[in-house]
Structures are given as structure tokens and as C-alpha cells.
Amino acid sequence: MLCYLKGKILNLETDNVLLVCEAWIGYEIIINELVYAELSGKKEAEIFIYHTISENNQSLFGFLSLEERKIFKELIKISWIWGRVAITLLSLGLKRLLLAVKNEDNKTIESIKWVWKKMASKIILEFSEKDFVKNISLKNDENKNLLENKMDLNIKNKVLESLINMGYLRKNIENILLELPEELEKIEEIIPFIIKKL
After folding, report:
1. pLDDT digits over 84-117, tens only?
2. Is the pTM of this model over 0.90?
3. Does some domain include residue 144?
4. Helical pair 187-197 and 94-102, crossing angle rounded to 10 deg
5. Which of 29, 48, 51, 176 is 20 to 30 A distant from 64 in Cα terms?
6. Parent domain of 110
7. Concatenated DSSP letters for 12-48?
8. Would you say residue 118 lies in a domain?
């Protein structure tokens, strides 16, 4: 079973990446917008993999960290949640997703494609007693110096580049950036917020 791949990016789209590894074997890996944003502009990638095998299909899901992969595996244990839903849920950003569970914030979870009210409630119910939710800080103090009154230029450029590559107009993106809530500090939080507004 595959769990990690490293290779050259042959093709990158918002929901999948074609990675060519040793011996020129290519793998199509299902990703979300956050992974896309991280890989955009790069020629090579290292991706953690979850390999699913069913009677009629095999799929590879890609993550930037082992922690994301772990949460993905927990998500697909929940009834009604299949791989595509789980990886799309992770496009919220790992910390934002877990904070939404901890705060019983159904609306944030329901904002994800394919997730309806009962499913969001089920995720909160199933995850609320897990250690990885109990131990998460309610304060978003990671990288707190990254943004102050104005967005860090590097973050802004990366957000713009990623969303323009997805087909969105620069002017529309910049207009939403002006109204960006202060609590959204990291790329994995900013991109989903803007996509929802576009």
C-alpha cells in the first residue's frame, strides 16, 4: 500500500496532481485546493498518500503532512463520508476544521461541498471526544506575527497566484482580500474563505 511519493510534477490541477516518480511511473493523486496552492509553481513534490482499493476502483489521496493523512483516515471512518468528501473537508485547513468541531460550528463544516446538516452534526459528534480535538488550542496563535495590520506580501502573492491559476479574476480576489477577517492568518484559511465569496 502506497503511503508516500516523491517525484516531478507533470501536471497540476485544482483537484489532482500527476506525479512522475522513479522509473518514470506516473501517479494521479487526488488533492484539495490547499495542496494545489502549496504545489503551484513547483517542479517537484513530496506527498503523503492514502491509498484506497475497492472492488471497482483504486484512488490515491495526497496530503502535505502525516497529521492531515491521520485526520483523513478518521474522517472516512464516519458513515456518509467518502474520500472525496474527506479531502474536501481538509481544504478548510486542519486547524480550522478541528476548531469548528471543538466549537460545534456546524456552519463552517456545512460550507464544504457535499456536506449537509446531518453530516456536519455527525462529524462533530464523532470527533468531539477525540484527543486531537480536545488538545487543540482555541487561540489561533500560530504564526501570529505573520499578519499584523496588513497581510504579509508573500502570503498575498501566493494567494493571488493560486487563485488566478484556478481561473479567478485578480480584481475580484483583491476586493475580497480587503475585507478579509483578521483571524484568518494562514494560506490554508484564506484561500477557502475567498473561494466561498467568489
Report:
1. 999 999 988 888 899 889 889 998 898 888 899 9
2. no
3. no
4. 80
5. 176
6. 67-134
7. E-SSEEEEE-GGG-EEEEE--HHHHHHHTT-SEEEEE
8. yes
